[in-house]
Fold these 2 entries.
Entry 1:
Amino acid sequence: MKAALAERSADVRATWPPLPRRTRSRRTALTIRTPLSRRAATALTVGSLAVPFACWVVLSATGAVPATFLPAPGAVLSAGWEMARSGELAVDAWTTTRRVLEGFGLAVLVSVPLGILMGTFHAGQAAFEPVIGLLRYLPASAFIPLLIIWLGLGEPSKIAILFIGTVFFNTLMTADVVRGVPRALIDVSYTLGARRGEVLRKVVVPHALPGIIDAVRVNAAAAWNFVVVAELVNSTAGLGYRIVRAQRFLQTDKIFAVLVVIGVIGVTIDVALRLVRARVGRWAA
Amino acid sequence: MTLELVDVSMDYGLRGREKRALDGVNITVSPREFLCVVGASGSGKSTLLSLVAGLTTPTSGVITIDGRPITGPGPDRGLVFQTGSLYPWRTVERNVAFGLELLDLDAAERRRRVDWYLAETGLADVRRSLPRQLSGGQQQRAAIARALVCEPDVLLLDEPFGALDVQTKEDMQLLIRQIWRDTGTTVLMVTHDVEEAVFLGTRVVVLASDPGRVAADLRIPLAEDRTLATKRSPAFLELRASVEDLVRAQHRSGVAR
């Protein structure tokens, strides 16, 4: 039967036209996942920073855009220097940073244990996942009026916005990471005599830790966004407040200077968390 | 230590749509035995080990150790998976020490025991390496050492060499035979590799597929001292062929073609 089959299919195949061949695409700088030469990579990175900066210099120097809209780099630098010298920049930066530490810190304290709970126990997942999945789609900025009614104009409402803006995402991301702990590692730990709490403490948490730090890093960026939004409404200090005040007097150079400071602090937080992640997650490299 | 499976059946899936993975399995493992269970995929080999490990509970039947029923996983039944069950953030020595860290032992006592098993499995030189820095064979040796340091009544091996290249696999087979003789532990190993089962086992159980049940249970009358030359001896080749025929026959009957 096998021979008959081979004969028959050979007959049929002889009548088939040859399969069309495709021409291969050439290797270029845009071949998927192909390393670029070091020089080309550096050139692209430098260019991506230098070109926009050059545009800025040219546009402001030629007066093509009025200085009220786009202040010259030099003006931004001196506005920043002025604010730094008077001490108000340091106060604003610290006020904003402290709010992030408090609001986002609180969110981390709540979301990490909750996420571990949800990622570990089906009961935790069943109880919290639907609610949190819904709540995270409510934009935190939409809560500002409500929070002001509930908590007043002071610090608590600003901390609460930060908290609401980050706690749900960080919980779900933590739960996801914890769910990624391989089943085999948990099973094998039981056969080595570990009890439930020991499995959680000595296996689940250490395995999930680098991923949890990643989640915190991503959400720290979100927190840094929310704090400025929170400060745009009724503050007496902070980087967001400084922007609103500068706007009132059309001091675009000051606004730009504050934006630069916000960027620098944000990047610093990101780099710091990256370093922690690299240290904690050395085993995963 | 005697391990006994009495009329063990296991169903998977939801009520009304269960699939039977094991059907009325009876196996007795005597002390110091090296029992290999072979079968094609779908014969419920891994299910069998997971039941003995206590990670799952049989739908019906009982599993006992010295007459006491198994109620859950424990260090008296050490388990080694095919791959990737080492703690990736722990060094080799700290992986091996895991089970001992849970006990009330002083550091010197722990160290003494870990050292012995690291030496026995040939891992002394890489004791401070992380799992990802090890070869596949070294990783499996570490997993075996980690299970053995808890001095289990029975060592459960789930296709432990299935992901290794042929040469490493043979090294590991010789090593596990040596460990078995040095430590006097009982071994229950599951594999789809008939040659491996006949080479390692003092006894081989053949499982039939769909549902898994015992199709044959035979003693392997080879000398205790087995080397790679054993694999070329006529006695070995004959045994291997007969077990292969058994597995193949069970596989055919399971798959309609």
Entry 2:
Amino acid sequence: MKLGKTAVGFVILVAAGIVAPFVIYPVFLMKALCFALFACAFNLLLGYTGLLSFGHAAFFGSAAYITGYVITKLGFPVELGILTGTVFAFGLGAVFGSLAIRRQGIYFAMITLALAQMVFFLCLQIKATGGEDGLQGIPRGFLLGFIDLSDTLNMYYFVLGIFLFGFFLIYRIVHSPFGQVLKAIRENEPRAVSLGYDADSHKLLAFILSAGLSGLAGATKSVVFQLASLTDVHWGMSGEVVLMALVGGVGTIFGPVVGALVIVTMENYLSGFGSWVTIIMGVVFVACVLVFRKGIVGELNALIKR
Amino acid sequence: MFEWLGITPQGLYGQLLVGLINGSFYATLSLGLAVIFGLLNIVNFTHGAQYMMGAFVAWMGLRYFGVNYWWSLILAPLAVGVVGIVLELTLLRRLYRMDHLYGLLLTFGLALIIEGGFRQAFGISGEQYDIPEALTGATNLGFIFLPNYRAWVVAASLVVCFFAWFVIERTKLGAYLRAGTENPQLLQAFGVNVPVLVTLTYGFGAALAGFAGVLAAPIFQVNPVMGSNLLIVVFAVVVIGGLGSILGSILTGVGLGLIEGLTKVFYPEGSSVVIFVIMAVILLIRPAGLFGKEK
């Protein structure tokens, strides 16, 4: 029964993804897909391992910069550029993860935030990142040498493919034996250790996977918008992805996708109102924490079960 | 001493002074975080916003009501403390029985609201707050011209830090606080009103941040984002020092400020990241932090 429900969800998601660009503005959809993948990757860590990272912008943003740099300055083809950015995020995740898992709970959040701020300052100072301007005009180029990505629909389906790949991968990770051990660690770490599981190496691997997939989202975003900027590595971005997961439902498969859609839509409509976006995001944060901890999908699941 | 590196003694002492000032702010803010964390088990993400509010209340007081610096030094922390108490009573209180992460997320949301509100009202360009007349000018110490206001900032924040340390470690009230950190249920059983203690502690921590904000107002530009950037550095300071020890937070704060100042002299490019690098190294060799206890 449960499997059936998820399968239905998948089919709806794929069908909606294919039809959507004929109904809704495709550039908006691509933005939503990139952030949805980012939020799903983040949720792999918070929702299924119980680790709250406040520095995921570091992976998202640095991958965006690397991809932009190798495509623009070194002339890499687009798919290789995205791959390079993603691999870099995996590597950065390995370094940051091995430092951060040495402490738990709130310290973990503070460490990831501080390390991400270091990346922010580096991106601000290094010449290759273009400082305040960021990297602009990243060419979209041709996928596999012949599919013209400057065509919006081609680009959209490429992004949809990447998203579905990442989404399915996360689904497989969560439902693998490895994912079950992660959940055991989340629920009761000492007990998981006493059963013979090496909690630290599981946490580290989850961290690396989450970082790498966040990087994939960031790399794709830089190609879509042809831009990598300081906003991508700023702590505000780390906060945003936490909010997306929280709004949609932490620890649910479809939650982060819904959360990302909600937040991106909100930003889209409020973009003319200056700092009100920040204020409203703060209010949503407070409301989620106080009265709406399960998020949209979590609450829906609870309703269906009743 | 370092002339062969192209560094003048004046430059060195100047940067060390800047480091000392930054260090005093790190110390005051991480002390407030440590006090709040001790009793409430919450990492107060609103701390940076409270620091910013202190500076803004002082600026608004002078601009609209003619309240001078010295009154602001008392009134602004009080105002920030009262706002903190209201937040604790209405919102934070509901989360004590839940995972600590929710407290962190709630205070992060509050920080966004406060910062966004001030940005909407005052823009991000920043406002000027003049140094009070009694503290303008500088004193010649022989090897350096010491601006009087900066000397005052260092002295005032260190005095406040040591006052806080004295209250917590050497008085009856402090004994209650420490007991509440160890075992709130037992303390309550002895007839101490723990919820009131918790509320006042949060108010005190917020007021401390507000006080630092007033001190900072004439040095840095008073602007809505002044707190959030500082707070992330303070988080790194807290990870390095550990939240367990009051004296430890003060020492770590001042020490890291000085190291940051030295980095500005010898390797300016590294000054914005040096504290984060130190944090990474400390995590490698002593994961619990310099003054932390391994749980």
